[in-house]
Amino acid sequence: MLQNHFVYIVTNQYRTTLYIGITNNIQRRIEQHYFDSQNTKKSFAGKYSCVYLIYYEGFENPKDAITREKELKKWRREKKNKLISEFNPKWETLNNQVI
């Protein structure tokens, strides 16, 4: 089972803002968020400096990943916090743990 599509959540330095996205390359996508946060700040993640990966899920099928992304985006903040805490209890930055 090859998981090559990901739903991910990034946050800012103070863990006050969450951005949920989908990608087939988490490292590249985080680099894009970081570049935008340092330069143009055109995207939501760039504007709020959401460059710290704190959660991700892998999927084989891109349609499943899209469905999950849409589901998570509808959740209230408390439910998102619980999901993140169950996956990553200390909300540690996972940027260097995914390839």
In short:
This protein is α+β, with helices and mostly antiparallel strands and 99 residues long.
Describe this structure in words.
With 99 residues, the protein is of the alpha+beta class. It has a single domain, classed as GIY-YIG endonuclease, CATH 3.40.1440. A 3-stranded antiparallel beta sheet has the order 2-1-3, with helices on both faces. The longest helix has 13 residues. The mean pLDDT is 94. This is GIY-YIG nuclease family protein.
Helix and strand content put the structural class at: alpha+beta
CATH-defined architecture: 3-Layer(aba) Sandwich
Give the CATH level 1 class. Alpha Beta
- From the alpha carbons, calculate the radius of gyration and give it in angstroms: 13 Å
Q: Fraction of residues in helices? A: 40-55%
Dominant shape: globular
The separation of the N and C termini measures 17 Å
Strand runs, count: 3
- The run of helices and strands is EEHHEHH
How many structural domains are formed by the residues? 1
Strand content: 15-25%
